[in-house]
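User: My collaborator sent over this chain with a note saying "see what the structure looks like." That's all I know about it. Can you take a look?
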Amino acid sequence: MRRFEVLLIAAVTLVGCAPTCPETCEKVLDCGNETERVAQDECITACEVQEILYEQWDDQQKMDAFDEHKRCLKQSTCDEIAEGVCYDPVVFIYE
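Assistant: Without extra context I'll predict from the sequence alone. Here is the result:
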């Protein structure tokens, strides 16, 4: 029973909270994109605005997709990010 509990906790931790906007932006910007402080602030602001917008819309699908997008960015390599592995049309509604 103890082993099951440990595995369950590990699974919940991995699926748990999405990275914050500052954590996500730091990862993306460390991959060779803009590195100036202004770019970091702009990235965080855009991310937070998107979160607020989905909350105001009360759109759980978009909130979940955005959280998954941030998880993907945080866990992916820079090459994978550049290849678009984290692209999700639910998150990128303006194209």
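A starting point for your reply to your collaborator: The helical segments are 2-15, 21-30, 37-57, 60-75, 78-83.
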